[in-house]
Amino acid sequence: MIMNKIQIFSKGLIKENPTFVLLLGMCPTLGTTSTAINGMSMGAATMFVLVMSNIAISLIKNIIPDKVRIPAFIVVIASFVTVVQLCMQAYVPALYETLGVFIPLIVVNCIILGRAEAFASKNGIFASALDGLGIGLGFTLSLTLIGAVRELLSSNSIFDYTFEFLPGNGVLLFALAPGAFIVLSYLLVLFNKYLKK
Amino acid sequence: MGYMEIIIGSIFVNNIVLSRFLGICPFLGVSNKVSTSLGMGGAVIFVMALSSVFVWLIQDLVLIPLGIEYMQTITFILVIAMLVQMVEIILKKLSPSLYQALGIFLPLITTNCAVLGVALILVQNEFTLLQSIAFATANAIGFTIALVLFAGLRERIELSNAPTAMKGVPVSILTAGLLAMAFMGFAGLV
What is the complex's ipTM, to 2 decimals? Predict the structure, then answer.
């Protein structure tokens, strides 16, 4: 029983990692990872919505008629996204500005609707919360990793902690759009080679 | 802002896929063949132009007068979902041939973050109705151009001999990076 629960939690980290294995939620993965802290904040915001919507959906799964379940899920998810949006606007306005349109776009992140449909609508509250936590953590770690690599290559720092990694000031390209694609591509190669079985 | 500026700016300089990172899922998902990517592009142009009108009307006639702009996300996603559904039904009745061509792509568009993203951006910029339509259509054309270019590249990559760990998605994403680099050349055009 406990083993089972641990498995539900841990599968999101590597075996079913949403970014590197399932390739879901690519827009925020590429769009918000110019620095490690941006990637981590985006991941955390998504994780919050994922956990809360998983809990809510597993609670109301017996009330929703099967035919309208997808619109119902979307409304639940959109409500939590609005909560996150208002909270971030109030307490971390600078971060909210940086992440911009990607915060409301958590609504259409396929990871969240995917988990609602595949897991939360079939399982209990505790299992759904654990599932959301695991997948959300996997997503956050992936985004933080991509952000850290891009920040390191583009400005010689990680989480604003500066050190001499590349000579000069780093390669600006990695902070821009092409850098996002290139870093993600090489991280995928490493993941495929060393972690995927 | 002039219309020319909006159109060139959103097709090339701030290309929705390659520089704003919206709509990456269909960009990677349905870009195996040039013909399917053209179909997807057509459907996106159709829905995006139409949704920009609805979104603009709702924002200006309902949300702002009532002072409930914070309901944007929920309202817009429902409007887009409803619109896609409606377009599908109307198209099926009026033009079966067009429905045949675009049909399978329409349901996919609801979860295409490009449509919601463009709706949110045009509301943020406080465009007029005509500017909104121009912005949405230009972005959809930019999406189609990126998609078709990428599909053309991918058809060639399929035949090439990539290292095992790189086969499939990684090499496609790397190509997208190179394409994005090429589009950076348009920076400063407007």
Answer: 0.87
